[in-house]
Amino acid sequence: MEKVRDIPPTGIRFPEWLKQALKASASKECRSLNGEVIKRLEKSLREEGLLNGH
Questions:
Q1: 38-51 pLDDT tens trace
Q2: Three-state helix/strand/coil letters over the chain
């Protein structure tokens, strides 16, 4: 996995309700908001067969 400092930031706007739901889920799993978003995106892309080997 890449080091955090080597990954350029990406600005994404979330509706407030979605951001709050992600924050709540992240908190339950002791993850950051960023970590939660990455986990969910990876899972979704893997399930669709669009992410291989990562």
A1: 999 999 999 999 98
A2: CCCHHHCCCCCCCCCHHHHHHHHHHHHHCCCCHHHHHHHHHHHHHHHCCCCCCC
